[in-house]
Amino acid sequence: MVQGPKEGYFPNLPKQRKHGKMFRNMSRNPQARLRILQGMVTALVRHERIETTYAKGHETQKYAEKLIEFAKRGYKDPKHMGIANDWLAENDLVHKLFKVLVPRYESRNGNYTKLWKVGERGMHLHPRASPMVFLEFVGNPFPPMQPPKKKNPGWLVNILLDGVKEEVKKTEALDLAKTIPWGIEYNYTGIIDQDVRIKNPTTLPKSEELRESQEIKVDTKDAKAKIISPENKGTPV
Amino acid sequence: MCSRRVFRDFSKLFTVRGYCSKTTLSNSEVRALRNEIFENEKQRQMALVTRVEKIQVKNVDDINPCKLIMNKGLSTPYNIAMHFNKFYRDRSALALVNGELWDMLRPLTDDCEVTLLHFKSDDPREVNKAYWRSCSHMLGNIIDSAFKNDYFIELVKVPDIPVTAGCFAYDADLKMDSWKPTTKELMCLGQEGFRLYEQSLPFERLEVDTSIALQIFKHNQYKKQQIEECGRSSIVLYRCGDFVDISDGPMVTNTGFARNYSVTAVHDIISKTSSRGCLQRFQGVALPRDFYKIHHTTWEPIEERASKPVYIDSEGPWEADKENLKDEASG
Questions:
Q1: At the top level of its lineage, which domain of life is listed (chain B) (predicted)?
Q2: B305, B307, B308, B310: which to substitute to probe chain A, counting the most A Cβ within 10 Å?
């Protein structure tokens, strides 16, 4: 029987998942569990995109990320080489790890993999079917999982909104917004809130609407200037 | 007492002269007359198609390319869309027939290749233009119907305003001095637009001789002038509900596209054609049904921008106060 990889090689794995359980035990003994994960990691490095259940995919994601983090330190250290040999069951993949994947992620700190949730398996057969997932390395040569988002500058909404944006840029509204001390004004200390309350009523728009039955009363002294015309008695509309 | 009565009568007479035109007809009566002539002419033209002939129509589209056999002079691009499904039928607003822009409700005349356009296609520029045109046609409809019968209103023209200006407009002669609408009145006008949306009235196209067009617009001096100046043998008319107007170029299928409709501003502009030297310009914005999920925080700045006066295709703003001050100073 083939011995699985040793868990002690990865010192900084997440400590606690939930309810005091560190890892999913996958209803097996620890060695069998690690053997499954080893197979998953090798498949991921081989194909760069695999389909599994959510539990397996989420578990392998941690180990795949750690593998690349160690591989980025260099292949000259025998300890790192040992980790790569342990976790990749097929020897030709060790070459791929150090020559292809490590140069790809040189400028990246973490988030080398991505998990896509894709519905549930056999939902029509069983009500509690396991949720399925796609696990992939970022920057793989396959076509993307989601279509790229279009900007659609020709749509009528976007034409109108672009016009609004240009008008705002011409004014000084954006520069003024930077000068407003947001942190102070929206504090929940009672002292400054009082000033805001006093300011607000002055900025509110005045209601100057006329109802149809309503008439304007004119003082006799000012009647010289204002004569009640048929317009004022009701709206023409 | 006697003198008071006399003054009252005088004032009444004065107001009648000031705010109504010389014709005794009201707006609604003129509208009914126009509609009647249009209806008669349309039925006359429909009666000319006596024999049903068949034509081959090719639908050039990515989704469902096919060949159809249709009736000459009767079936329209809308009937093509009806063959597929409801979604396809409702979203298509305009058609391209052999590379020429075509209304959805205009009958086909020959063998042709048709593509149907919609608001979310890759290049929706032509659809946007047609939408803007038809929205200003709706605005004309609203101005014509919203005012009380005491006020005789003459519509002038649709100014040529691009979509990038942020609003569509309609110029009208209200024959009232410096009428500025309140926010409530503007909202009422916008509600009329929503009523048209609910009815989803079709835009009917009709090509008529100039004599009939002159007969339709005999109560409107501006439209009459327009018809005489253009010097064509035939003129294209559009009808929406019972409102008839002159317009070139295609329009969208029906008023059901104008989901968010609001009339935003009314202001005065200079014009030499009118006797008083000024016209009123009505402005508005609308969005098609495809974008009705727009959030109010994005819709409000669009409305705000449309409420600023736009003087494209006019001779500038008309300031009543300045001229009045001049008159007072001189006399």
A1: Eukaryota
A2: B305
Q: Which two tokens stand for residue B135?
A: 């929205």
* Inter-residue contact A17 to A46 (CB < 8 Å): no
DSSP A22-40: -S--TTS-HHHHHHHHHHH
Q: Give the Cα separation of A41 and A66 in Å (integer).
A: 11
Comparing A73-82, A123-132, B94-103, the range with the smallest average pLDDT is A123-132
For residues A93 and A79, give the distance between their C-alpha atoms in angstroms, rounded to a whole number: 17
* Interatomic CA distance for residues B258 and B93, integer angstroms: 12
Return the closest-CA partner of residue A139 out of A92, A105, A107.
Answer: A105
Helix (H, G, I), strand (E, B) or coil at B127: helix
C-alpha torsion angle, residues A98, A103, A105, A107 (rounded to 10)? 140
Please tell me the distance from the alpha carbon of residue B165 to that of residue A205, in angstroms, as a whole number. Answer: 27
Q: Which residues pair with B68 in a beta bridge?
A: B57
Position of tokens 């079917």?
Answer: A129
In chain A the beta strands, taken as DSSP E runs, fall at 49-53, 113-120, 131-137
Chain A residues with CB-CB distance to B298 below 8 A: 157, 161
A12 vs B321: CA distance, rounded Å:
79
Where does chain B have alpha helices with state H? 2-19, 27-47, 77-82, 86-91, 125-146, 183-199, 210-216, 221-230, 296-306, 320-330
Taking an 8 Å cut-off on Cβ atoms, the answer to whether A163 and B176 are in contact is no
- Mean pLDDT score across all residues of chain A: 76
Residues 6+ apart with CB under 8 A from B132: B161, B162, B163, B168
- pTM of the predicted protein model: 0.72
How far apart CA A34 and CA B85 sit, in angstroms, is 54
Chain B residues bordering chain A (beta-carbon distance below 8 Å): 15, 19, 119-120, 122-125, 128, 131, 146-148, 150-151, 163-166, 176, 179, 181-185, 188-189, 285, 287-288, 291, 294, 298, 301-302, 305
Structure-token pair, residue A47: 């194909």
Q: For residue A233, what is the enclosing H or E element?
A: helix A230-233
Q: What is the pLDDT at residue A235?
A: 64
Cβ neighbors of A164 (< 8 A, separation 6 or more) are B166, B301, B302, B305
Residue B2 is predicted with a pLDDT of: 44
Q: Mind listing the pLDDT tens digit for each residue in A12-71? A: 555 445 666 667 888 888 888 889 999 999 999 999 999 999 999 999 999 999 999 999
Check A156 against B163: CB less than 8 A apart.
yes
| Cβ-based contacts of B299 with chain A (< 8 Å) | none
Closest by CA position to B282, among listed B189, B182, B178: B189
The alpha-carbon radius of gyration of chain A (Å, integer) is: 34
Residues near A113 by Cβ (< 8 Å), separated by ≥ 6? A44, A61, A64, A65, A135, A136, A137, A138
